[in-house]
Amino acid sequence: MRERVVDARWLEPPEPMELTLAALNVLEPGERLRLLIHRTPHLLFPILQEWGYGFQTYDSDDGTYEILIWYKDDAAASGEPAPS
Amino acid sequence: MNGQAGLSLTQAPPIGVPLRFFVTAPLFALAAALVLLWQGPELFSSRWNPAMVGITHMLTLGFMGLVMFGAILQMLPVVAGAPMRRPERVAAVIHAGATAGIILFGFGLISAVPLALKAGLPTLGAALLLFAVLVVITLRRALPQNMTARAMRLAALMLAGTVALGLLLLSNHAFGWWLQAREPLANLHLSWGLLGWVAILIAGVAYQVVPMFQLTPAYPDKLTRWLAPGLFVILLLLAPASQLPVLQFVLRILLAAGLAAFALATLWLQARRRRKLPDVSLNFWRVGMFSLLSAIALWFSGQIVQAMGAWQRYGVLLGVLMIVGFAVSVINGMLYKIVPFLVWFHLQSKNRANAIAIPNVRDILPESRTRPQMWLHFAALGMLLAATFFPAIFTYPAALLFGASNLALWLNIVAASRTYLRVDAQLKQASGHAAL
C-alpha cells in the first residue's frame, strides 16, 4: 500500500489541517495518508467523515499520534479485501 | 454519510454568532476613549466618580463582556458535546439586549440621566442573566473531567452573582435611594466580576488555547483541577466575611496566591513552548500576565503600607492594571487567534470540492495589521498607568492612544469579516458553476 506522510507535529493550528486537506486533495487512487500530529485533531475528524474518508488513530510511544486516512470509495486504499 | 458525520460541523454555530459580538466590542472601548477625551483628567480623581464607573463598564461589559459572550457561544456546543438549539436567535437576543443595555447604562452614568439607567437596568439585567443561565444549563451535560467546562460554568455563576449585585447598586443610582452597605457591596461586585467571572473564565479558556495555539506543554493537572473551584469558593466566602476584617484579609491573600499561581504557570509554560517564533498573540498574553502579577504586588503593598492603600487613586491604578493590562490584553490577543481561525475554518469546511483556494490564517489577519495595533495597545496601557499618577499631563495622550488602538482592532476584525464574505461569495459562485 502506497502512503503519503504529512508531519504536522508541533505546527500551530490550523496548519496541520491545512496540510492534511491539501494532501488529501492530491491523493492518488490506492494511496493512503499518514498524518503525524502532536494532539488529537478534533476538528479534522468530522470533516473527514463528512467528506467520505475513513481513518484510524494510533498512539505513538512519544505521546504523539499517527492517523491513517483513506478515501472510503477507494477499495484499494481502504485496506479491506477487494471484492473478487 | 454515517450517523456521526457532520456532528461537530453542525455543532459549530454559524460564524455570524460570534462575529457580531467581536465586531461590536471594540466600538465600546473606542467610545470609552472618547468619553475620557471629553471628560479629561478629572475622571482619574476617584473610582467612585460616576463617569469613571460608566467608562469602566463600557470596558468590562461592552468590550470584555461582549467578546467573552461571543467566544463562549462559539465554544459552548463543543465544550458541552452537544449542539445548541437556535444559536442565531439566542445570539441575536443576547447581543441586542446587552448592547442596548450597556449604551443606556453608560450614557445614564456619564451624563447623569436617571431615566436611561431605569431603562437600561431591566434590559441589561435580562440579557446578562439569560446568558449566565444558558451557560450553566448547557454545560450540565459536559464531561466531569473537562476542566474548561467546569471553569466556564463556575465563571457563569459568578457572572450571575456579579449582575445581581450590580443591579442592586444600579437601582441605587437610578431611583436615588440610599443603600447603607454600598461600599462593601460594590467591593464584592468588583471582586466577583473581575476575579470570578473574568479571571476564572480566562484561566479555563487558557487551559485549552495556550497549549493549542502557543504549542506549550499542558497546564499542571493540579492547577486545572483546583484553581477554578478554589477561587470560586473563596470568592463566595468573601460575602459573609465582609464584617470580619481578618478573615477577609486571609481570603484575599488566598485569592492573590491562586491568581499569581495561574499567571506564573502561564509564563512558565510559554517559556517552554516548542517553537520560539515571535507571535503577536503571545505578546498580548505575556503583558496580560505581567499586569496581573503587578496588580497582585500592588494590592499586597497597599495592605502592608497604609499610606499607599489610602491613596485616593490606588483603586484606579489597580483597575487599570486588572482591566486594561490583564483582561483587555489577553482578550485582544485571543481575538487574533480566534477570528482568523473561525474565518478559515468556516470557509474550508464549505470547500469540499476544493473549488477555490482558501486564504490561510496569516493572509486573513496578517501580522502587518496586528503588530502595529499591539504596539498602540501597549503604549495606551503605559500612558493610562502614567495618567493615574499625573492626570493633567497624560490623560489626553492616553485617551488618544487607547482610542487609536481600538479603532485599529475594530478595522482588523472588520477586514477579516470582509474576507469571509468575499471568499464565501466566490465559493457560492464556484459551486453554482459546478451545479450547472
Structural summary, described in words:
The complex is a heterodimer of chains A (84) and B (436). With 84 residues, chain A is an alpha+beta fold. Chain A has helices spanning 15-25, 44-50, 75-78, and strands at 2-7, 31-37, 53-59, 65-71. Chain A contains three helices and four strands, in the order βαβαββα. In chain A, strands 1-2-4-3 form a four-stranded mixed sheet. In chain A, strand 1, helix 1 (15-25) and strand 2 form a beta-alpha-beta unit. With 436 residues, chain B is mostly helical. Chain B has a single domain (8-421), classed as Cytochrome C Oxidase, Chain A. Chain B is 81% helix and 0% strand. Chain B has 15 helices and no strands. The longest helix of chain B has 45 residues, at 391-435. The chains are: A alpha+beta (84), B mainly alpha (436). The interface between A and B is medium-sized, with 19 and 24 residues.
Attribute tags:
heterodimer, A: about 80 residues, alpha+beta, Translation Initiation Factor IF3, four-stranded mixed sheet, 3 helices, B: about 425 residues, Cytochrome C Oxidase, Chain A, about 80% helix, about 0% strand
CATH level 4 superfamily of chain B: Cytochrome c oxidase-like, subunit I domain
Strand content of chain A: 25-35%
Largest sheet of chain A: 4 strands, mixed
Share of helical residues of chain B: over 70%
Distance between the termini of chain B: 24 Å
Summarize the structure.
The complex is a heterodimer of chains A (84) and B (436). Chain A is of the alpha+beta class and 84 residues long.
Tell me the layout of helices and strands.
The complex is a heterodimer of chains A (84) and B (436).
Chain A (H helix, E strand, L loop, with lengths): L1 E6 L7 H11 L5 E7 L6 H7 L2 E7 L5 E7 L3 H4 L6
Parallel strand pairs in A: 1-2
Antiparallel strand pairs in A: 2-4, 3-4
Chain B lengths: L6 H5 L4 H24 L10 H31 L6 H24 L3 H25 L8 H29 L6 H33 L6 H17 L7 H27 L8 H25 L1 H5 L3 H36 L11 H4 L2 H23 L1 H45 L1
